Every structure is written in C-alpha cells, then in structure tokens.
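so the lab meeting is tmrw and i was supposed to have these ready like two days ago... anyway. pasting both below. for each one the top line is the aa sequence and the line under it is the structure tokens. i havent really looked at them closely yet so no promises
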Amino acid sequence: MAPPRKKPRRGKRLAPASERAPEIYRRLTAEYPDAKCALDHRNPYELLVATILSAQCTDKRVNLVTPALFERYPSAETLAEAKPEELEAMIKSTGFFRNKTKSLLGMSAKVSEAYNGEIPGTMEQLVQLPGVGRKTANVVLGNAFGRDEGVVVDTHVSRLSQRLALSRETDPLKIEQDLMKLYPQNQWTMLSHLLISHGRAICDARRPLCEKCVVNDLCPSSRVSP
C-alpha cells in the first residue's frame, strides 16, 4: 500500500498584520540601524538623476556611473544641454539607456524652465516631470527633502510585504496603500530602507535565510518551525 501523500505546508497562523507590524519595524530597526538610501547623492538633483537611472538596474551599478556623470553635468541646467549621444554613452551600462536619456533630458529641461533649475519638493510637481512616477517621487521626497509622502515599493519591499503578510496585493500602488495604513507617516521612508536591507541580507527571492531572520516568528512564510 502506497504511503499517504503529504499535504502541502501552509503558512503559519499568526496575529493580524496590524498587530505584528510595530514589532516587525522595531526588530528591523535594531537589526539595521544604519539603513538608508543606497544611491549616492549630495542634493535633490543628484538623487533624482540616480533614481531615474536605477530603473531595472542595481544601485551599485548606478553609483559607479554617477560620479563622472555629475562631474560632467553638475546641475539640471547643464544636463538639459547635454548631447543625447554623449549622455547615452555615459549611462549605457545602467541598461535601457535610450529611454533613460530621454527621461533625463526631458526632466532637466522642465526643471530648468519651470523651476529655475531647482528640483521641486512636492509630489504633484515631481510626478509631472518626464520619467518621474510616484515611486521615484517618494524616493526624492523622503531622502532629499525629509518628507514622508509615501512608501517606496521596489521588488524587495513587494516581496517582503507579501511574505510577511503585510499585504496581499501584487500591484505596487496597492501594496503602498496597505503599508501606509499599517505604519505611522513618520516611518514610511525608513520602512522602505529596512525592508530593502532585510531583503538583500536575509530574505532573498530564491533562498531566504529564515533561520537567521530576526522576524521569523512573525512571518507566516517562515521555513523555521515554531
């Protein structure tokens, strides 16, 4: 007689997300006290450019490209005057360089014309710039202006939000809305840094290190037995 088939393992039953969320934040803050934006920048202009370049590219690669880029184009006004072929050559290694060049030239031209070369500091203004969506605007507002307008949802934040059952959504905008309901506004920017740090260090997409995870007892997806 064949042995009975094992039932697929289900996620652990834990408290609702609203009850677990504060402790998850507390533990991750303790684990990653130096969590911050990984894109090197000295001002809002540099961060906006770096964030546009980071689409479908690692922060590490962007940080290799931007020093020479910012030396050649230190302001929105100088970037707006760049020759497309020269800019493409400088950012080629970040991928999708033609589309990024178009976005950078469009963004810098509008900033130069409409805002006297200064990066605007509101969500409404930022998302009107070429190549800038809500995610990019959140990065700039939270890290260059110190304004918690939303939660940056990248692939790490999306993955961890689902594994930790902080959101059932797959759409970044809907995940962001769920996270904004769970955490106070003054934690929104740091929340992204913490989840990204944890995603890189422990909660890998393919091989999460659940046995080393500081929130494994709060995670319904954990492979560690209770």
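ok protien two:
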Amino acid sequence: MAYIDTALKLEDLPLGKSTCVEVGDAQVGIFHFAEGLYALDNFCPHRGAPLHDGTVTDGIVTCPWHQWQFQLDDGTCKNIPNVRATTYPVEVRDGVIWVNMEPQKTA
C-alpha cells in the first residue's frame, strides 16, 4: 500500500507531543519524540481509549484510561503478553507526515 499524506506538517507537531489524524477511515496517533516519529492505531486494543492522549516515557505510551503500556516502535503491550497496538510505517516528505496504512511487520 502506498503512503498517504496526513496533511500534518512536522513543524506543527513539536518534539515531545502527539496528535490524532484521520487517514481514510482510520484514526492514527502520531507521536513525535527524540527517539523518532511513530504512528499507531489511535484506539487502545483494551477499551478503545485515545492513545494520543496518553503519556509517553522512554518510548512507551501509557493508555490514559487503564494504564496499559505500548511500545511506540512495534506496539508491543508491556502489561499483557501477545497484545499489540497496530503500528504503521511513517515518514516525512517535504516537511509533511505520511503514513502507510499497511501495518508494520513484526518479528
């Protein structure tokens, strides 16, 4: 699948912040941190909380409702084995954030 333009400029998402964008029919949380730029399905797989509203520490987002924790790079849940948040490849083109809605492959 091709990358999709989110229309979100990197300069509008300061380092240390996150936001939610609509990409087609999906809502994607975009996270901009020193470790990189990440894109996850914005709904927590537990109860659907908006992950972009969670806190991020050391590359892990903590769900704002029930404190489930997900690694930004691969979506692995730190609380429950075998649970993942879907992650998507993300890149910046000419200052704009693009997301590939084909989920990233995990090892």
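from a quick look at the 2nd one: DSSP finds no helices and ten strands in the chain. The longest strand covers residues 26-33. will dig more after coffe
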